[in-house]
Amino acid sequence: MLFSEIKTWKCEEEVGIEIQGEIKKTKVFKYSDNSFIVGVSGLAVIDDSANIGNQCNIVGTLERDAIINDGSYIGMGVIVGEGVYVGKGCAIQSSVFCDIGDNVMIDKECVIGLNCRIGDSIRIAGRSVINDNAFICDYVKVGIECVVADGVMIGKNSSVGMKSIINANVSDDNIIETNVVVNAAIGHDNFIESGCIIDADVGNHNKICVNCKINASVGDNNYIHGECVINFPIDNEREIDYHKVVGQLSDLD
Length: 253
Fold this sequence. Notes:
There is one protein chain. Strand 1 and strand 2 form a beta hairpin. By secondary structure, this protein is mainly β. The N and C termini lie far apart (57 Å). Helix content is 0%, strand content 34%. It has strands at residues 10-19, 22-30, 39-41, 45-46, 51-52, 57-58, 61-62, 67-68, 73-74, 78-80, 85-86, 91-92, 98-100, 105-106, 111-112, 117-118, 123-124, 129-130, 135-136, 141-142, 147-148, 153-154, 159-160, 165-166, 175-176, 181-182, 191-192, 197-198, 207-208, 213-214, 223-224, 229-230, 239-240, 245-246. The strands form 3 sheets. The protein has a 15-stranded mixed beta sheet with strand order 1-2-3-6-9-12-15-18-21-24-26-28-30-32-34, with no helix packed on it. The chain has a single domain, classed as UDP N-Acetylglucosamine Acyltransferase, domain 1 (3 Solenoid), CATH 2.160.10.10. The relative contact order is 0.06.
């Protein structure tokens, strides 16, 4: 649904539903074409300027100019900030506290888990999953069909390419390209190209080229060319040639 296609809603009636063992009133909204959304709970707080698509279920808070597209769910305890756009079929799950910052765009069919924190000016592409307790810092971009694991933090100004899997913390200012698997901590200001698998900690200011396998720690300011396998720790300021397997100290010469 485009911004211009979202219809103005008005309250049609109130019905009683059971929420956590108590009967709460839920407002049912109707559009001018007689279509209905699923419902807006009496617990919901919705700014007058927010727009809601068809067949949505809203229990949380929508702040000024929030846009929620068709079939999306905003759970209890979720705060959707100013100017947030949520695409079709998304689920932002109920939690003790889940904060979606200002000017965030969440594309279609994304899932945001329990107790997540999503910063300001973030872009999350379609069909991505942000699991419980994750923290996505300001100005991050997450590509299509990515997965961010439970409790993981992605630092500000970082980008994660499509179909990547992030299972460990990523610090600020990183570029992670497509189909990358991160299983160990990443420092700041690294460039990790497509197809890499990171199974050991990576420091700062490194470039790791396409299809590398990192099985031992990498320090700072290194350049690892494509198709390398790192089985021995690399300290700082090394350049590793293409297709090299590093298994001992002498391999770094």
